[in-house]
Design goal:
- The longest helix is centred in the middle third of the chain and has 12 residues.
- It is globular, with a radius of gyration of 18 Å.
- The chain is built from five helices and no strands.
- It is mostly helical.
């Protein structure tokens, strides 16, 4: 018989106060601030923050990104946002997305 009264909580669920739903209740935060905080904590987890300042070459960024399973462009954006590298550095590792508007019928 399968136990059905047990609650399943995925291991990626944050403790109270850290989930995106909790962040959305911050009345004074802009959407950009909420997005920045979410991306800062979700895309590059806090346990890797200490390594970011050591990433000075493209090969380092690529190796780091592969190790934690994200695109190198995300790492570059974080380095630039944190002012660890110049905003004009390593932009060739980023990918630009262009969206085309689709007309509704």
């Amino acid at each position: 018989m399968i136990e059905t009264t047990r609650t399943f909580i995925p291991d990626w669920v944050s403790p109270p106060g850290d989930a995106i739903a909790d962040l959305l209740e911050e009345p004074d935060w802009t959407q950009l601030q909420l997005a920045d905080r979410w991306s800062r904590e979700f895309l590059i987890p806090p346990e890797y923050e200490g390594e970011l300042a050591k990433l000075k070459y493209e090969t380092d960024v690529i190796d780091f990104a592969e190790r934690i399973g994200i695109h190198p462009g995300i790492v570059v954006g974080r380095l630039q946002n944190d002012r660890l590298i110049n905003p004009s550095w390593m932009n060739d590792l980023k990918v630009s997305l262009h969206f085309q508007e689709i007309e509704s019928v």
